[in-house]
């Protein structure tokens, strides 16, 4: 029996939820769902109401908010549980910091380190 597009998207969402800290790539998720990159993005947005990146970001923020509510959790521990880890073993957060005269966005990478 072949799976429908919504069931394949649901399966991908379950995988994302199971490991939010993984460095998910849309192309890999599309391949896993058995769809082309562009078709997967359209189907994902239709199913979830968000882009793939937006969905992952919102789920990570939701998880971080839940963990922050727990007074026993340290911010470093929450970061390690909700953000992808770099080769050096530390999460890197990329945030926009402005635009140049051509409209190109400048970003800054912040690395989280243990204290």
Structural account:
With 115 residues, the protein is an alpha+beta fold. It has a single domain, classed as Orthogonal Bundle (Arc Repressor Mutant, subunit A). Helices cover 52% and strands 13% of the residues. Strands 1-2 form a two-stranded antiparallel ribbon. Helix 1 packs across helix 3 and helix 2 crosses helix 3. The longest helix is centred in the middle third of the chain and has 18 residues. The chain is globular. The protein starts with a helix and ends with a strand. The relative contact order is 0.12. The C terminus is likely disordered. This is HTH araC/xylS-type domain-containing protein. One of its GO terms (molecular function) is DNA-binding transcription factor activity.
Low-confidence stretches: 107-115
CATH architecture: Orthogonal Bundle
| CATH class descriptor | Mainly Alpha
Radius of gyration from the alpha-carbon trace, in angstroms: 16 Å
| Shape assignment | globular
Percent of residues in helical segments?
40-55%
Strand order of the largest sheet: 1-2
Tell me the strand percentage band: 5-15%
The termini sit apart by: 52 Å
Average predicted local confidence, pLDDT: 76
**Could you name the CATH topology?**
Arc Repressor Mutant, subunit A
Q: Biggest sheet, open or closed, and with what strands and sense?
A: 2 strands, antiparallel
Please tally the β strands and state the result: 2
The CATH superfamily is Homeodomain-like
Q: How many independent structural domains?
A: 1
**What is the string of helix and strand elements?**
HHHHHEE
Number of distinct helices: 5
SS content category = alpha+beta
Pfam family, one: HTH_18
GO molecular function: DNA-binding transcription factor activity; sequence-specific DNA binding
Domain HTH araC/xylS-type: 10-81
Organism: Roseobacter litoralis (strain ATCC 49566 / DSM 6996 / JCM 21268 / NBRC 15278 / OCh 149)
